């Protein structure tokens, strides 16, 4: 688990509901059970400041870092999809993007990752499609300096044709296998974690569970039911995740609270 990715999980799942800020010492302590060393935490924090995700603040008991508005938007979007609290209906239309792809390979890769996170799949190098408009996609493309055209489109053949578009844009068989693997791996890891386990152990297990689930934000566009195969593995995986995330939440919350200093206030 990389420190930067773990920090996104930590701020999104635990610190965002608590004001979105924490002392450096608390960040170090909260990532220690994941095997992330203090220097790696500090390096990742500095990188996230440079990228505009975190900003340094002065707290009552020392220096800390708070999420920026840009980070708050991304974390809120992620939370909606992780816990599937958003709208799941479909009006039969696709959001279609035709891009002038960046020339640099690294920029293309970064753009592809961001569009995948927002639920878009690719029909070719320049054409991306989603079953719902991605929140913030215009801002993303404008900030990246990418020229684009955007359309709302419905397939003339209705749902049958739409399912063909889905099969071109996403490898649902591969995504389904990834869900099955997720359940198998996490079931083995969580088997020994009970309500009697130490809070730190439950916190670490839940953190790893959420971290593994979060990777599906870049894989699964969370398609409407009408466009999914029968007995979709993602449904069972979602139930598994919800059950264990809820089961371990009280112990994880206790551990987080114990690591956060009582004087968690910004001076001035």
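^ Assign residues to that structure.
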């Amino acid at each position: 688990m990389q420190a930067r990715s773990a920090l996104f999980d930590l701020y999104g799942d635990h610190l965002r509901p608590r004001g979105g800020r924490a002392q450096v010492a608390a960040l170090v302590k909260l990532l220690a059970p994941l095997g992330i060393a203090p220097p790696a935490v500090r390096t990742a924090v500095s990188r996230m400041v440079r990228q505009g995700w975190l900003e340094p603040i002065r707290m009552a008991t020392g220096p800390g870092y708070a999420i920026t508005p840009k980070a708050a938007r991304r974390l809120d979007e992620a939370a909606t999809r992780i816990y599937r609290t958003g709208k799941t209906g479909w009006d039969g239309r696709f959001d279609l993007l035709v891009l002038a792809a960046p020339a640099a390979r690294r920029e293309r890769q970064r753009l592809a990752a961001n569009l995948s996170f927002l639920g878009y799949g690719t029909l070719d190098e320049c054409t991306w499609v989603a079953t719902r408009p991605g929140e913030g996609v215009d801002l993303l493309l404008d900030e990246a300096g990418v020229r684009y055209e955007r359309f709302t489109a419905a397939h003339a053949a209705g749902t049958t044709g739409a399912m063909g578009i889905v099969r071109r844009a996403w490898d649902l068989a591969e995504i389904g296998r990834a869900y099955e693997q997720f359940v198998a791996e996490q079931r083995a890891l969580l088997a020994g974690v009970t309500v009697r386990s130490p809070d730190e152990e439950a916190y670490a297990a839940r953190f790893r569970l959420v971290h593994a689930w979060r990777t599906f934000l870049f894989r699964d566009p969370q398609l409407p039911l009408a466009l999914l195969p029968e007995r979709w593995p993602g449904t069972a995986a979602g139930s598994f995740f919800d059950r264990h995330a809820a089961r371990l939440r009280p112990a994880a919350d206790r551990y987080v609270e114990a690591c956060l200093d009582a004087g968690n206030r910004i001076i001035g």
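The first helix runs from residue 3 to 15.
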